Amino acid sequence: MLCQHCQQREAIVHLSITENEKTREVYLCEPCAKKNQEIGFVFHPAIVPEFLKALFGFNPSLIEQPSETTCPKCGITFSRITQVGKLGCSACYETFETQLEPLLRRVHGGGKNMGKVPARRGIAIKCRMELRNLKERLQLLIQQEAFEEAAVVRDEIRQLEQTKGEGNHDA
C-alpha cells in the first residue's frame, strides 16, 4: 500500500486515530510519519504520575518522599523524579535506592537483572555463575556454622571445578 501522504513510497506505519468518537486509519511511509504532526505526542510533566499509576499501579504519593534529600551529583529530588518520570543521572539510583526499589521490582518483576547469556560462551558463563553462587553459599553456611551443609556445598564446588577443568569451558 502506498503512503497516503506522498503517494510515492510504501506505507510502513499504520495509525488508528480516534477523534470525537470516530476512528480513521492512516497509512504512512517512514519519512512522512516522522514529519506528520498527528503521531507526535508529548508527555506533559503533570500527567506522568497518573500515567505511571495507571500503567504499573504505582502511586508516587504513597512512597515516603524525603523532603530535602537531593542527588549529590545532579541535585534532583525524589519528588521531582516522580513528576518528570525519569532520573537525573546515574547517581540517583544509589541516592534514592530505598524509594526506587519497590517501583523497579513492580515494573521489572524482580530485584536482580539476570540479563541474557550469549549462546557461544553460555556454558562457561553459566558455570562461572554457578561456581560463584556456590562459593557465596559456602561462606554463608560457614558463618552460620552449618558445617555439614557446608561440606556438601564444598564437594559440589570441587566437582564443578573438576568438570570445568576437564571440559575447558573457558576456551
TrEMBL record:
Residue spans making up a coiled coil are 124-163
Source species, please?
A: Desulfosporosinus fructosivorans
Q: Which SUPFAM superfamilies match?
A: C-terminal UvrC-binding domain of UvrB
GO MF terms, alphabetically ordered: cadmium ion binding; cobalt ion binding; copper ion binding; helicase activity; zinc ion binding
In terms of InterPro entries, this protein maps to:
UVR_dom, UVR_dom_sf, YacH
Query: UVR domain location, by residue?
Result: 128-163
What the entry lists under Pfam families is as follows: UVR
Name of the protein in question: DNA helicase UvrBC
Keyword annotations for this protein? ATP-binding, Coiled coil, Helicase, Hydrolase, Nucleotide-binding
Q: Name one GO biological process term.
A: stress response to cadmium ion
